[in-house]
Amino acid sequence: MKRILVTGGAGFIGSAFVRYLLREYPEVHVVVLDKLTYAGNLDNLREADPARHTFIRGDIADAAAVREAMHGCDAVVNFAAETHVDRSILGAADFLRTNVEGVYNILEAAKEQGTARVLLVSTDEVYGSIEQGSFKETDPLNPRNPYSAAKAGGELIGRSYFTTFGVPVIITRGSNTYGPYQYPEKVLPLFVTNAIDGEPLPLYKGGEHNVRDWLYVDDHCRGIDVALREGAPGEIYNIAGGNERENIALTRRILALTGRDESLIRLVADRPGHDRRYSIDAGKIRALGWKPLMDWDEGIVQTVRWYQDNEWWWRKIKSGEFRQYYERQYGNR
Ligand code: NAD
Ligand code: DAU
To answer: Ligand 1: which atom is nearest the Cα of residue 16?
Structure first.
């Protein structure tokens, strides 16, 4: 692969994937197509060699923009999405537009142009919640919020383009991802940056013992790359961190690492339809040679330190559009 289109490459995981590709494959040129929504940020690409990537500002819901960006690319990896569950509860229109219609445009362009690989980055949330054990790729989909329902919709269109037209679609379903450059609406960077400032941590009441499985961002990127290169078209691969933690345990760890105490915890009204536990079995991608390399204890220490050392990155964000969102989301909670 010489030229790879990364849609959503200015977001959290997409930008890490661009850095990963440039680091691992000296012959690759990366094209980034990103709308730069509130979550997209060119600061995230500051470490990516400008000579080896081309940035295009554009919307995957715009078929012409997608077609043009995809010209001459051997592969497309789609990260572009509306990604925050709480925002999907406040309003889901953009989620359907980007996560379903946008994916359809990528598939149409790939069908027209005969693109050799189409990787759709999806999420473990499409399975819904599980009390015991872990979901396998063959388990039924049961998304329970507008975000995950829209992601499942994008996946299903993708699978239909494989079976109907032979478009070489591969799907990955990753677990909760953490690391540098994550937009501070997500629980981990939100709680770390609030704790740094001595602000309350709004923990959803009733969800203190809900469980998420934490995956370091570079491990997620390597898993996507393994699926892209070694995976079979038409197949789905779970990518799990193997670090299941209750939200309260995560919160306490963040408080300890930032030198704060539990008086900062503020129990607020729960998220409607709050999924209790996510857990996926990564045996299928492990059989292709992937495994997570980052140990949780080290990953959380490094990540907290990154936010402590890079206030320039998140302070700009938290003083912009974010403030209005925060007020709307937490003001009366
Ligand atoms: P993010 O919100 O940080 O970034 C999303 C990026 O997509 C932004 O750069 C944004 O500008 C861009 N974008 C949004 N709508 C667009 C559109 N219509 N056209 C072009 N660009 C658009 O997201 P993230 O957390 O990096 O997630 C990336 C992908 O990984 C998503 O598909 C998400 O569903 C999936 N995923 C995320 C996690 C996680 O824990 N963060 C876990 C599993 C899967
Ligand atoms: O599992 C993969 C998914 O992980 C991705 O597909 C999503 O894009 C990503 O946003 C993430 O979804 P979650 O809903 O699990 O992540 P979030 O950070 O929003 O919440 C994690 C847990 O923390 C969840 O149980 C809700 C809780 N929470 C979250 C926020 C924002 C709180 O208690 N308080 C909060 O303020």
So the answer is: 26
